[in-house]
Fold:
Amino acid sequence: MKLNIYVADNMIPIEVPEDMLADAEQIYAKMDSDMDKGWQMYRDWVDDLTQQQRCQVVANKILTALENENKPSAMLMAGYIMTRMPGVLNVHISTDGDITQTQLG
Structure:
């Protein structure tokens, strides 16, 4: 499966093997549990994140992984978005620090 990540003017396709999605479910459940406690969304604290907001948080983690050239982490985070929002094919990551501006589609 593939998720297209857009950072500025660059498109980075991330291929995630389907078997990895099932294998990583325990990790994804832990991520959900952590986000159940709330998250800082740019300037605001959000107690009850929507699924879209959770994926925006994870998209920010993809950006960090790409910046650090950590392909396994980027794949793992892309897999989270694929499992939690299956219809999403493209993620346009905001690079100005405002993760609420990250677009999923």
Residues 2-104 form one domain. The chain has four helices and six strands. The mean pLDDT is 97.
